[in-house]
Amino acid sequence: MRSVVVLGATGSVGRQTLEVSERLGLVVEGIAARRSGEELAALADRYPLAAVVAVEPDPRGHAGYRERYGNRYGWGAEALVELVSRPGCTVVNGVVGAAGLEASIAALEAGNRLALANKESLVVGGPLVMAAAASGELIPVDSEHSALFQCLQGEDVAEVSRLLLTASGGPFRGRDRASLAEVGVDEALAHPTWRMGPRITIDSATLVNKGLEVIEAHYLFGLPFDRVDVVVHPQSIVHSLIEFVDGSLKAHLGVTDMRIPIQYALTHPARSRGVAPPFDLTRTPLTFEPVDREVFPALDLAYAAGRAGGTLPAAFNAADEIAVEAFLRSRIGFLDISGVIADVLASQDVVEVTSVEVVRRADQEARRAARRLLSNPPAACQPPA
Predict the structure, then answer these.
(1) How far apart are CA 221 and CA 382, in angstroms?
(2) Up-side HSE of residue 329: CA atoms within 13 Å toward CB?
(3) Range list of β-strands (E), 95-136
(4) What are phi and psi of 290, to 5 degrees?
(5) Rounded distance, CA 108 to CA 94, Å?
(6) Which contacts (CB < 8 Å, 24+ apart) does range 103-108 have?
């Protein structure tokens, strides 16, 4: 197996990737994080042969890093692209947000395997990433897309009638819209099955995350949006399903442990001994429900952005990032997140995605539009009393 380069090494996916890599006996060739803090320094010391990159180095520790790690240390976007372009490695992209796009493209154009946990790469720059995938190898790490990828092995996509992404329903499953008007940050961060970072946890609560996954699945597997569905599955045991034209269903099941899809992305097409204990099917009932689209309108906003195409998915993602940040700071209410996204989408032009620069401009404009809205919010976007 190839050596591993881990982006977002100090985050949840990054740390679990390093754990799995050690179990598999893989060489960690490079590690990267957004900041040059003590967490990254601890990993740099733990992997003395690995190149180390801080995308946005802390000025207070930058000089110390240069002295401490010498030529092993690089900083900025160019250093990150250089790191993922090392030949013959598997790049695990666990960066959060649209910042992961350029690294995803560079890794693929270098002919490397890209184990993609940064769904935003495909959401904001799907055409660019899929074009680059012709030079490399793209394997999804998100549990839902890894499940679909595995279910499709040996199958003809032409015989698939639809993809079914499962959603836990988040902490507010079964609630009505009125009851969500006053929910606080702590409630929204209390995910029932997964332990994740703040943004993705809030996105799960609003179903924005599932909307991003719908767009990602569209690009990964080449199916139109009317053949990508979402179903609520509170137990999070069935990670996703595919339905064939003859009515048969094929599902991927497993415990809620991100190390499993991470390991598969590193070992594919082979499998290695599992990192999780055997699963007992007799102990957990499996239930499914439709999505309440009235309570969670963000999902349909994602479908609309995806169908419009061009730069509108990038605008969707950017508006959500700004709105979630405002919610986490208690500047707006939970229900206002989808309102901000809707208003921003209505204000944006759809431009064909022909370059990273086009995506970057759309991202920045959507962020500016969201910030303008938040600086002078209508009554509906005022924080709860």
Answers:
(1) 40
(2) 8
(3) 113-116
(4) -75, 155
(5) 15
(6) 103/7, 104/129, 104/132, 105/129, 105/132, 105/356, 106/81, 107/5, 107/136, 108/132, 108/133, 108/135, 108/136, 108/137, 108/138
CA distance 215 to 303: 7
Q: Which is it for the CA torsion 21, 22, 27, 28, positive or negative?
A: positive
Q: pTM for the whole thing?
A: 0.92
What is the token pair recorded at 220?
């990964």
Find where tokens 């499998």 sit: 271
In 3-state terms, what secondary structure has residue 17?
Answer: helix
What integer pLDDT is reported at residue 377 of this predicted model?
62
- Distances in Å between the Cα of 202 and the Cα atoms of 13, 119, 184, 187, 224 are 17, 16, 11, 10, 27
Q: Is the dihedral of CA 45, 47, 51, 52 positive or negative?
A: negative
Contacts of residue 245, Cβ cutoff 8 Å, sequence gap at least 6:
159, 160, 161
Strand partners, 7: 32, 93
pLDDT single digits (tens) 252-299: 999 889 999 999 999 999 999 878 888 888 888 999 999 999 999 999
Q: pLDDT tens digits, residue range 226-237?
A: 999 999 999 999
**Which among 58, 98, 63, 103 has a CA at the least distance from the CA of 83?**
103
